[in-house]
Design brief:
Elements lengths: L1 E5 L3 H13 L3 E5 L2 H11 L3 E5 L7 H10 L8 E5 L15 E4 L5 H10 L12
Parallel strand pairs: 1-2, 1-3, 3-4, 4-5
Length: 127
């Protein structure tokens, strides 16, 4: 099972990839919205961890484009952001969860994925 991380911050892609792999998933990543959309089309991941604040194409536009494509519309998307107003979440259709970068920990990622309906088959018993 593959989880795709779309984030313009290379260090965050690495952190999320490490956590996702420790949970028993395969991790793939993309550094921006355009490459992220291409990766989603190619990989058909089980879930997407999507940064909201990216240059050129932000996470909102990526999410809108995903939801417009029937074969991609049902993929769970978990928003990742350093600064999102939790009150905004009701205004974001089609998200399966939220992770706050400053409070990131292993269990929060595991719970967010599980709540999105994505449960790994652990390779190492950590999940």
């Amino acid at each position: 099972m593959t989880i795709l991380i779309i984030d313009d911050d290379a260090s965050m892609r690495t952190v999320f990839s490490d956590v996702v792999e420790a949970l028993g998933f395969e991790a793939a990543s993309a550094p921006d919205g355009m490459q992220g959309l291409a990766a989603v089309r190619d990989l058909k991941p089980q879930a997407i961890l999507l940064d909201i604040n990216m240059p050129e194409m932000d996470g909102f536009e990526v999410l809108e484009r995903l939801r417009a494509e029937p074969e991609l519309a049902e993929i769970p998307v978990i928003i990742i952001s350093a600064s999102i107003d939790l009150g905004q979440l009701d205004e974001i259709p089609g998200i399966s969860g939220v992770l706050i970068k400053g409070r990131l920990d292993f269990n929060e990622v595991r719970i967010a994925l599980r709540n999105a309906g994505v449960d790994p088959h652990p390779r190492n018993g950590l999940a």
